[in-house]
Structures
1.
Amino acid sequence: MEDNNQYDELLVRYLFNEDRAGEKAFVENWLNTSEENRRYFDRLKKAWQLTDIKHDLAYITDEANLEAKWDRLEQHITNEDVEAENTARKPGVYRILIAATVAASLLLVIGLGWKFFINNKPAIPVVQHTEKKKDSPAFVVRHEVNTTGKEKRISLADGSLIVLANNSEVTYREPFTEKRAMTLTGKAYFKVVHDNTRPFIVTSGDISTTDIGTEFTITGFKNTSHIIVRLYEGKVVIKAVDTTNRRMKKDVYLLPGQEFVYGSKTALRTFTLNKQAAPEQLMQQEQAGDNPALPETADKPYFMFNNQLLGDVFDNLAALYNVKIICDKKDVQKIYFTRKYDRTDSLETILKEIGTIHHLTITKKDNAYIISK
Amino acid sequence: MPMSFNDTWFDKVAFKELFKKYYPPLCIYCRLKYGFDIYLAEDVVHAAFIKLWETRQTLNPDSSPRAYLYKIVDNLSLNTLRHEKVMQQHAAHLLNTTAEDISETTFNSIDLKELSAAIDIAIAELPEQMRIIFELRKYEGLKYAEIASRLNISVKTVDTQITRAMTKLKEKLSRFLILIIALTVTLLFKK
């Protein structure tokens, strides 16, 4: 090993990035010539690395610091546990409380083609919380990634609720001061406690959705085929992030029961509100409704309607059961219908159900059914 | 004492014990292995403990929390590298270090306070001028030429002094080097 002494200066210069012309290649070559050379260099480098962490070691082994870090962790896990308990143990009370305090609420963003982490990330399937220190020490960036396979509830400090779908992520900065801004990739349900002074803005891809007055806004996704914003309650405005966006020249204001589809075909549609359903249920229902082109079901023991216009539904039923169904188009316009039926279900039952849901009267006359308001 | 999930560790008292025992070495591990600065390393380890807490009821009661923690830290670190674009920043460092794997088992046996003291002493024991030159390069980030002009000495002297400092430090810290090195820079330099 003594022989290597002549190389020490070279190796140290190499470590300190002080190598002169041609030296780097020389050192790398030398390292390649034998295992012994590499071992020699390795020890030198480890010593160099150890001196590198001199200050870090003093800092990290400091008892007071360790206590402070524990306090931070303990606070975090305590909050988590309280949240978990609230949602698990008293859902009824919880919902009522939310309902009472929510001004604008229930906004849903869907993106097809959101990130499928599972494919490109062999990560542990968990909800990850990452906190990043920003320049201002008071702010913490929270980044929630959900790969648990089911919906994840996130309660925000302002009382708002986010239900994050699987394979989705949301990023925001706390505490909320001027505005409550978040970025969403994937799908999430938002129940926002309105605050005039702090608009709640969700950005998703090209669009952003904001809660204005007693209202609310939302955003879109990156690199997705389309983005859907669905409003269940309150009011939101949707804007293009880029004001020169040609697909969306005007802001869109949504009313409850309306959904905005942003994509190759931008459209405003309506859907059926279901006020009883829990956020998780709503999200799952949507998922089914997001695939407008479902496979033909002719060979199946059931048939289904998937977010179809009620008028079309009646036409289909008439053909299936070989009867006449008469309705005034005005009575059924803008009503969309999603439901699955067994082929053995009687037409009478089906129509009765549709009638109940959409407040329509069904009258049978000879071989025809008459639908009226 | 070998802890396992079998102990009633999932109450907060036991969890705190686990934290105090493993937080510092995990941070240093993450710092050395992935080249993160100490604050990023702390964030990663913090997240790892949260994950451990959240999944505490679903873990195999016989597995070791230590091994599990190191595993989470590895996963989170790799994710961080992949996703946070720290990539570019650390690519250079990684090229130089990832090949040699820092072994979790031996690493955890290091007494960090002892190591910290040993490094401090090793540096303090260097001859004064040598120490000053070394510290200027290492902790002040001055280049050889800058040190030379500041101390009014030749670059050659700086070169020699720093080299001597490094060889001395290597000797003084030799017992720790074995623990940290799992050998092989091989991957890196194989053509």
2.
Amino acid sequence: MKIERDRFLRIAITVLFVAAGFYLYAETAESRDKGPAQPVLFSHKIHAGDNQIQCQTCHSYTEVSPHPGIPSVQKCMGCHSYVAGRDVEYTTQGGQTINIREEINKVKGYWRRQEPIPWVKVTGMFGTNSSGMPEFVHFNHKRHIKRGFECSTCHGEVEKMDVVHKAKDLTMGFCISCHEENADNEEHKTELKDCLTCHY
Amino acid sequence: MSQTQQTPLTYARITEDVVRMVDKPSKKWWALFLPTVALVGLGVTCFFYQVATGLGVAGYRHPVFWGVYITDFVFWVGIAHSGTLISAILYLFRARFRMSIYRIAEAMTVFAVLTAGLFPIIHLGRPWNFLWLIPYPNSRELWINFKSPLVWDVFAVSTYLTVSSVFFLVGMIPDIAAIRDKVKETPRKIIYSILSFGWKGSNKEWLHYTRAYLYFAALATPLVLSVHSVVSWDFAMGNVPGWHTTIFPPYFVAGAIFSGLAMVITLTVPIRKIFHLEDYITLDNYDGMAKLIIFTSCIVGYAYAAEFFMAWYSGSPYEWGQFVYRATGEYAPFYWTMVICNCFVPIVLWWESVRKNIKALFVISILINIGMWFERFNIIVISLSRDFEPGAWGIYKISFVEAGITIGSFAWFFMFFLLFVKTLPAVSIAEMKEILPVPKKGG
Amino acid sequence: MSGKENKGKNGMKRRDFLKVLGVAGGTAAVAGSCSEPVEQIIPYVIPPENVIPGVPKFYATTCRECSSGCGLVVKNREGRAIKVEGNPESPINSGKTCAMGQASLQGLYNPDRVRSPLRYNTETQRLEPIGWERGEEILTEKLNSLGSGKIVYLSNNVSGTYSKFVAEFLRPLGGKHYVYETFSHEPIRKANSIVFGRDEIPSYRIDKADYLLSFGADYLETWLSTVSNSIGYSKLRDIDHGKTGQVVHIEPRSGMTASNADTWVAAKPGTEQYLALGIANVMISKGLNKVAPGPIARMVSGYTPEKVAALTDVSADTIKKIARDFAASKSLAIGGGAANTGSNATETMVAVNILNYLAGNIGKTVDFSDSLSISDASTFGDMKKLVEEMKSGKVEILIVHNVNPVFTLPGELNVAEALEKVPFVVSLSSFLDETSEKAHLVLPENTSFESWGDYSPKKSVTGITQPVMRPVFNTKSAGDTLISVSKNVEALNNTFTEKKYYDYLRNAWKKRAAVLSPGTSFEKFWEKLLVKGSLTTTPAPVNVALSSRVSSVSFRDPQFRGEGDFHLIAYPSHRFLDGRGANKPWLQELPDALTTSVWDSWLEVNPAVAAKMGLEDGSYVKVDTPGGSFEVQVFVYEGIRPDTIAIPLGQGHTSYGRYAKGRGVNPFALLPAATDALSGGPSLLSTKANVSSLRKRDLLVRTQYTKSQGDRHVAKTVALDQIGHHNGAHGADHSKHPDFYPEKEYSKYRWGMAIDLNKCTGCGACVTACSAENNIPFVGKKQIAKRREMNWIRIERFFEKNSDGSLDVRFLPMLCQQCGNAPCEPVCPVFATYHNQEGLNGMIYNRCVGTRYCANNCTYKVRRFNWYTYKFPEPLNWQLNPDVTVRSKGVMEKCTFCVQRINHGKDLAKDEGRLLRDREVLTACEQACPSDAIVFGNLIDDKSRASVLSEDDRGYKVLEVVNTKPAITYLKKVKQERV
């Protein structure tokens, strides 16, 4: 009897550790293409990293609207009417190999058909929306940008990502701790920690 | 009734009788058990229907936001009281008439708390959010509101469940060991072995055991008073006319013991008959319980009167309006059912012949249970349907889903109880032996 | 800026509309092996100019729900109209709206709109979808083959460019345009023509009056321009140095308007004229008249107060008192409603005119220089003739546009049958109502929110309607349809040079602009017009003199048909008007002001009659009239004469969409086609009916079952001469309460509200506005029968008694009081509701677990629980406000003073580094409130309007004794010496 119990314990503990390890690995692995697959493999690394294009060039409403704005196909074509892209193989950090010109041609295809590109929202692990920003959270990009926060404070180093994934967990604890740190005084802290700031 | 009554109780017979109870279930047992399970199924179906569709399928409406589920909750918490009262308080007072019934009362306590605990969850719009009532570290960095009586409820009920279960299980150790020694089949033997914690019956064990039992009794005793006081604060801390009163804690505790004792009678009468336990649960036991019922009935009756008096004496039109409404409004039949069942019916117990008449006791105990259910219903629903704001007054009606879940909850409770009498010692072997006169040599 | 870009060529197809929202996500493809759905972000293909996702755009336009022509500002988010507000620039409504206006978006997004052209298939006997091309082709063919018969264009009041356009369209075809408004107040026109020689309806300036004497005119409900009237009423109710205006209402029943009057005089039905003559008689005999009476003296000489008293059931003293007060103040007498639709309506209006004339009101409170465009509508007599013509086959083509004569014309006329005699009926309406259903061809029009146009409600004002979003369905503006058709019709070949109605409109305005502002370029003029929403001119003053024709009037006794015991009053509803509002769930779910009934019809019966017949609220009765009978539930109401019964109009649709169909009864169907002899107006109030009990009873579904507030004193009144005399009953009182806890301190804002019960009329505009702003679901009759309505603000109505025993109706808007010491807060186990640093009682939906303890503990019972996840059928969900979370089942919700608006305002103020100013943020209810009863603001700021009003001597907190310290101060209703 005693031996059996020990065996059970050992198995249970092993399973627990493996699960925890798997979870931590998935949560922290930075270098892999763990973001969702997109209709066009748009590399933020090439655009924002290698070519140094500012975030606001495409996400142009960050300073005027609660929403940053997703660039229209027209905006893509603003450059890609001229930039055809090199006809070369490109390997992403996650090991996916694409042809740059082919990807750009996909964008041109959407433009020709006058269709919007159905981007997939970047959320939690494994492409689930389990920890995406739910609709009862009213986040205002404008306020944060005007206050001088870098995009990377919440979105991580997007300019280093070929496939965008969620860099910060963006749970309420994340928001609250930042609001606490950045309050000017106690009164301001109360305001920033007020539930009605984000939930209504 | 016939054969067993002839032979007097002996140490051996007590053990045999109890072990016989946990024998293979009879057809009678199955005939009781299967419909019970079916009714539990009805309750579960209703519950899932409610979760899937929304709480709209219950009878709730503006302005009555609490209804049958909270009534059931308070009712079952109330039932849970007398178990611990009989096993712990009466133990401390060395009241001997408790010996034969305390195990049943304790089981009743545990199952009633199990049933009661379901209702706040059923009552929630989205039951899975129940977790948020428990303080645990989370990524939202949110805590719970310790000012809310509902949070106190969570602690009170869960503490009560824990303590009463432990008390129940610990109390059974020597008896389970006795069964373990009698049982032959392996799987059952293993289970009883585990539950008996390797009890051997040595002197040292008995020494520790009795000490522990005493301490548990002492620990459980304040809980009897605290749990229902906390439950009563759910109402007393609110500002609704008819709720907001300081009389509630003692009134609720008395009411709980009142209804709990009635439930013990309701349960033991059929068990006594089915398992032929007339020698164990004697008429004197019933007499003792009936006297307690008279006492608590008086307290409850006094509380009803005091509420009325205070409502009038306060000069508050809201309080007085509420009590006049209770007695004369749409819900008046419910109110008078409560008064008759709880104040007038127990009066007949002043006669000893009634106290010792099993059939009469059975009927009276059921009437008291009905009356006490309506007491909770009246406090909750009538108060809410007519409080401060005249524009919002409205009537609550019970829906079939609520009825289904309520019936299901009774079935759930009885299901556990039926399982209990078939698997665990329903009468305390050890303590029954304690009260037997010491046998003569060779007897 | 303008709605032009919405219609730009480079836009997307309507089908793609959902897809291209820029921010909205849809659930679509499944990624990889994981089974959870993935949210998508769909960007624009081409971003529309000037549209920033997340930032609302506002378009000025004109409301076309009734003929008042209120200016609107429509809030548009990401291409969808989400909220209607009054346009502060409009001279008609000064930024206010009524409930119907607020609900107009549910017309735009109505799931039962006609989605594409339909044609009647003779085989299947149903209307079946066809394409636009085919639809227009059919109409073209019919127009080309027009024989000797007439072509008739039947529309609602479309005064402005469109009426000229229709005239141009019809001229070559020899057609006729009928402007049909169910309530076009012919007797008022006729009486003005008789008394003053002016065949028109003037502007009645309630705002300039101190003493308002209404002969049945339900000016707060449906009479002429209700929002405008309410604004005037609000001014009249201002209290200045202990003085305020007075209102006397004469009507057999106390409707919402009468219930707000200081005195309700229940004259015998049809005898209002005698009352007016009696008052005139007193004025002249006592020398109170300000203008020489001329022939009038002789006319009224016979109507002594005593004689009139016998005729009308009104005491002679009352008549004398009214006459004295009326003559002594800046007064105004108006007539309408029941008095306006009797068999002697014109005579009654003549008598009313006489009063105005004698008191010298002409040119002061009666303004003929700025007459209403509804004056030009066809009379009921004209309509009757038209129906006769249709029946006799003289009408060959009938174009019906936004009117529903089958429903709104008396049943005796049998319009449905007449329509069948017309060879070809085209409907241009947006909805399949009872009339469109009978059409051979339906070419669905855009709603006014989707099309260009203008509308002139009165001489001085022309409002612009511009598209506030692109069409929701495959519809076309009526103007565009007609122009497009005209190109292929021989007779019309050269009528229109323009390709679109938009061009026609601009050309018309170009001509006006050249006259109005000759210097500036048209584009600038046009842009300014679109921004402002309307053009206001100053009409030339007119001289009005007494016409000699006045003496020709003889005052006849009212005629009644039928032998019943009761006068039957069918009155227009403030929610549905003539029935056009019935397809909007918000209006169906808006409780009627007096009965609080929803989704149904009812019959008002006096308690004495009810007692005699054994009727209770909800009893079924059968009402027999000469025109037929109907069954309806009873509402026992003290505010109606025992010899009268009343039923609201507007329900009883047999078509018109899922929300309207099969609810209640349509009294129009039973009314006689009788006319008022002089004006040709409908004589609706000319029927006597019998009531018999059906001996069954059911719940009459309402939102409030309590009639009196009893000893609770939540809706308080104060006598006018007591204001300022009771020693600080308000200010000092609540600081005296001892408290365990320290006073809460606020640093920047303490949001609060003042609600003036003296101004609240119970109209319900706030309720609908709140629903629209806060995504409040409608739940339907069954759920309301279980009291599960979701409105965050409700208007409680209490029937009390005045000291003389007369009826005293009180309205009390009840919403979350944002208590400083809120009972809901401590009981929530999870902090889902709490008090914030700005004095708001926050409600965090996503934290709520649903214990509902807060709602139990709420003293005011203003919290609502989501018993189900309520659905907004497509495309009604397009209206949802993206700034407010849509709640799902199991969540408590309530008013938070439109916190999304406060946050939005604070965000904009922060951009400028300042705090919010007073009146910068308006809550939705306050914004709509036509009588300005609700004022929201920062209580820390001593100068804010809300602060000032909160300190008013009339101020009190509801149920103050509970010590909840509400942020809402109610101002007691003022009671004056009664007539």
